[in-house]
Amino acid sequence: MKTCSKCDKSKNLEEFSLKNKNTGLRSSWCKACNREYQKNHYKLNKDIYREKARQWEKANGGASGKRLRNYSLTREQYNSLLMEHDGKCWICREASATHIDHDHSCCSGASSCGGCVRGLLCGFCNTMLGRAKDSKEFFSRAITYLT
C-alpha cells in the first residue's frame, strides 16, 4: 500500500505509475490524480500544445512524412500515385487509398527501397494481399472458384 500525496488516499501499488522500471520506484501521485492533472493541464494549455504539434509537423512532415520516408517516396511521387486513380484504391476503386503497397519479395517489412512500390490501396485490399502473401496462384484459383 502507498498513500497518494495529491488525494491523500491509501491505494495498492499498482495504482501508482512506475517512475523507473529498474529500481521499481513509483510516482508519488496515483494514476487517477495524475490523469486528472494531465487532463486539466492540457485544457489550460491546449493552444501551446497545438502550436508545438504544428511546428513539429511542419519540420518533420508529420506522420505522413515518416510513412513517405519509409517507402522512399517524395511528396510529389506520392501525389502522382494518388492521382492515378483519383485517390481511390487501385484494386477495388471504391475506398480511399491510404496504404502504400510494395512488393515484399524485393523489400520485406514495413519499409521499401521505393523501386518496389506498386500502388496505393485501401486497408481491406492491402490486408487481402498480405494475407494471400502476394500469391498470383492464390488469386488465380480464387477467380476460377468465383466463375
What does this structure look like?
With 147 residues, the chain is α+β, with helices and mostly antiparallel strands. It has 2 domains: 2-44, no CATH class; 74-146, 3-Layer(aba) Sandwich (His-Me finger endonuclease fold), CATH 3.40.1800.10. 46% of the residues lie in helices and 12% in strands. The protein has a two-stranded antiparallel ribbon with strand order 1-2. Strand 3 and strand 4 (25-26) form a beta hairpin. Helix 2 (46-60) packs parallel to helix 3 (62-70). The protein is elongated. The mean pLDDT is 90.
What features would you highlight for this structure?
single chain, 147 residues, alpha+beta, His-Me finger endonuclease fold, 2 domains, two-stranded antiparallel ribbon, two-stranded antiparallel sheet, 6 helices, 6 strands, 46% helix
Give a brief outline of the structure.
The protein is an alpha+beta fold and 147 residues long. The protein has helices at residues 31-44, 46-60, 62-70, 75-84, 123-131, 136-146; strands at residues 2-3, 10-11, 18-20, 25-26, 99-102, 117-121.
Q: What does the secondary structure layout of this molecule look like, with pairings?
A:
Elements: E1 2-3, E2 10-11, E3 18-20, E4 25-26, H1 31-44, H2 46-60, H3 62-70, H4 75-84, E5 99-102, E6 117-121, H5 123-131, H6 136-146
Antiparallel strand pairs: 1-2, 3-4, 5-6
